[in-house]
Amino acid sequence: MVELSDLDAAALLAAEEAGVLARRRSDVDELLRLLAWCDLHSVDPQTQPGATPARLGGDRLRRLGGQGTPEVAELCFAEFAIAGRAGTIATAHRAAAALDLRHRLPLLWQRVQDLDIEVWLARKIADLSRPLTKDAVALVDASVAAAHDLPAGKLIELAEARIIEADPQTHRQRIAAEEARTGVFTRRRRPGQAVAAIDGQADVQPITLRLPTAAALEFTTTIEEIATTLADQHIPEDDDDVPTMDQFRAHAAELLADPYAAIRLLNGDQAPDTEPTTEPTTEPEPEPSRPTRAERKAVVYVHLSPAALAGHASGVARVEDLGPMLLDQLAALLRHRHIDLKPVIDLNHTTAVDAYEHPATSKERTLLRTGGDVFPHSTSRTRRLDHDHVTPYDTHGPPGQTGDHNDARLTRRHHRTKTHLPYRTRQLGLGAYRWETPHGLVRVVTGYGTTAVEGLRDRDGVLIGEIYPARYELVVDEAAFGERRPNSVPAYGAARRSAAWRTSGSVE
């Protein structure tokens, strides 16, 4: 075995890449063994000679996975759990996900076996989609398998959106159930917390608010407005009197306990902690300037698929920082907002300018093309990103260096990494970026995620070409949405099952 201390940087990176694949293969092998164990125990124990009746606690078949998965003997997992040094319940849960993948999510299962997706991530998606019917879950399967290069968080969010889209009525029932559990809860103080050094509560009382999403957004926006007003009006008593914004937000929540004080503050009538004067004055005080309440805005981008336009698919909205939701949820979210409905934005349009700063229109198009940070494998989706010139800006260079063709959204840390370390970056097209690390790792980042590129090198290790894996896109067969025939599956399920895959690959 080679000592890690004997490896140079390039060899360590190669060992790490090989280690990731080896770990994924080991995880897949674990699931394959568990599936084989399930197959061994798929015979009804009640049919065996001398079987104890199920009503007396005897073993029986039970369906662990979703609709369409085979039944397995309920008590068989105890012995396998012992062999795996795991708990029986945890082993049964793994088996349920494995059965879902093999029988309900075959495209995703193939991606797992090809080592494109982590086992834990596929299990998570299988667990989330288990309530769906076998026909409905096909939409989740096809969408997730096609987007396997996305970071884990984005892939789960995509699966979440497809689960909602596949069965909106069930999601409405989830919403109704959660609304029944809303409330305001005060945490009970435990003995000793008044003097505890960690998690102490000397003179604070934690409160938990469980609100509908729209109400929670309005509440936090109001808190932020009041806190900002308090910060603007704050006059420090000394150099140490510098409250944080969190403290101002806490003070804002206190003010909401006296709504009239909050109204007076927002109207500019008087500071919240001052008493009204009762002494007569000879001259009337000048009318204080009343601050106008900031208009609460919302920007809506509409993306429509052919299936949605034809009325075959339900619309699902994605709200930044909140995730996917039904359109009626979006309506509740926007009820107190001034809506800025964006016109159709052509993402193939480009703008080039001679200045260093990227135009606002170019920034917006880059945001919509990429969805976040374009550093390899980054999960950041915040809007607070730098817009970097992929090809460094040259003050003495040619005109038109700044625009869509030379714009990469990066976090500040990734921006510094690209600038101060010998990374080689090239923008391949609109929203597509090729990265080569200082020691030769190559990645291509697009709106689909990050793709590992296999390099072709000569005997001296010089890069002479690259192999890009095939890109799969789901193409819906609109003809499958015809009238339902007797004894046929639902039209939407038939369309998903008859979906075609368009493949394209290239060698550079």
Describe the structure.
The chain is α+β, with helices and mostly antiparallel strands and 508 residues long. 38% of the residues lie in helices and 16% in strands. It contains 16 helices and 19 strands. The chain has helices at residues 9-40, 77-83, 88-103, 106-113, 119-129, 137-146, 152-166, 168-179, 213-233, 245-256, 259-267, 306-309, 327-333, 360-370, 412-420, 491-497, and strands at 61-62, 72-73, 183-186, 207-210, 297-300, 316-319, 323-326, 338-341, 352-353, 386-388, 402-403, 408-410, 424-429, 432-436, 442-446, 449-452, 454-457, 463-475, 500-507. The protein has a 4-stranded antiparallel β-sheet, with no helix packed on it. β6 and β7 form a beta hairpin. The longest helix has 32 residues, at 9-40. It is globular and about 105 Å long.
Could you report the average pLDDT, rounded to the nearest whole number?
83
Q: How many extended strands? A: 19
Low-confidence segments, given as residue ranges, are: 480-508
What overall form do the CA principal axes indicate? globular
Strand order across the largest sheet = 13-14-15-16
The largest pleated sheet is described as: 4 strands, antiparallel
* Cα distance spanning the termini: 36 Å
What is Rg? 29 Å
Give the count of helical stretches.
16
Strand content: 15-25%
Helix content: 25-40%
Helix-strand category: alpha+beta
Please write out the topology.
Layout: H1 9-40, E1 61-62, E2 72-73, H2 77-83, H3 88-103, H4 106-113, H5 119-129, H6 137-146, H7 152-166, H8 168-179, E3 183-186, E4 207-210, H9 213-233, H10 245-256, H11 259-267, E5 297-300, H12 306-309, E6 316-319, E7 323-326, H13 327-333, E8 338-341, E9 352-353, H14 360-370, E10 386-388, E11 402-403, E12 408-410, H15 412-420, E13 424-429, E14 432-436, E15 442-446, E16 449-452, E17 454-457, E18 463-475, H16 491-497, E19 500-507
Parallel strand pairs: 5-8
Antiparallel strand pairs: 1-2, 3-4, 6-7, 9-11, 10-12, 13-14, 14-15, 15-16, 17-18, 18-19
